[in-house]
Amino acid sequence: MNIKTDFCLKPFNTFGIEVMSKSCAQITSSGDLFELFEAGELQKQEVLVIGEASNILFLTHFDGLVIMPLMRGKKVISENESEVILKVNAGEYWNSLVDYTVERNWWGIENLSLIPGKVGAAPIQNIGAYGTELKDVFESLEAFDMKKGEIVNFNNEECGFGYRNSIFKNEFRGRFVVLSVTLRLSKLSNPNLNYKAITDVFDGKKTTEISISEIRDAINKIRESKLPDPQKIKNAGSFFKNPVVESKTAEQLKTEYPEIPVYKISNTKSKLAAGWLIEQCGWKGKRIGDAGVHDKQALVLVNYGTATGKDIFDLSEKIKNSVLDKFGVELQREVLVV
To answer: What CATH class is the domain 234-337?
Structure first.
């Protein structure tokens, strides 16, 4: 285990915010966590677990211990003619995992291609995109309990998955370090075309003729056309969640704004497109200093150079207030503010 003090986090957060942590432990096995627990390092200070910090906005220096799980490796637990159970260690890069499964024609996460970050962060956020969420293929995970100093297993139901949410973002926030994630993937062709942009790509083509690599490639092109590469323009992807409102509220908004995208998700709830709401308030492409809203996707806030975390946070507050004033809808941040 490698523990460093006064550790610079700028290369380890996709917003590129120049902040420091008091210390940082790079974990290569669960044994490292047991060692930290026995030494009292996990009890005497605030602890933050990050992969690539692709969903975090740092407002200031972190006066505590940052833990970076670096465990790599994948293992097939079981398989038959129709499915495979794959265990993946937390330090694997998510997009590399997608490519790995696509190469083997294992269906389930191809729609989640090009999402930045590592596997260990995926269940925390219940990552999702283009009609697919992690919970759809999630079997279980192993995690280290920093409070009790033991390894615990969680199944799908126990994780309390919701829209960009899980039990690890709520009552168990900051308590567990994910060690591995186990997925149930299909060996049978199963294209998920439940998203208009994907449907348009394959219009007129039979689903039985669509390969898993074609799905992945289509997703990549869609994402690259709308979302900035964090290596070129610092960002954390979608900054806000798409708001879920009462269907009655959505109907009222539809009457006043006929163009508003509305997606019914139940008999009583509907989802609105946060990007559309933000764009209607005039924020798309706007810039305040080096903090800005991307010119191709209003959901994405970016750091054009030397913006601080506070600069980006303040911009997000202005956006939230303007959407609330115009539509009466309160946006929630998808990123974790630290």
So the answer is: alpha beta
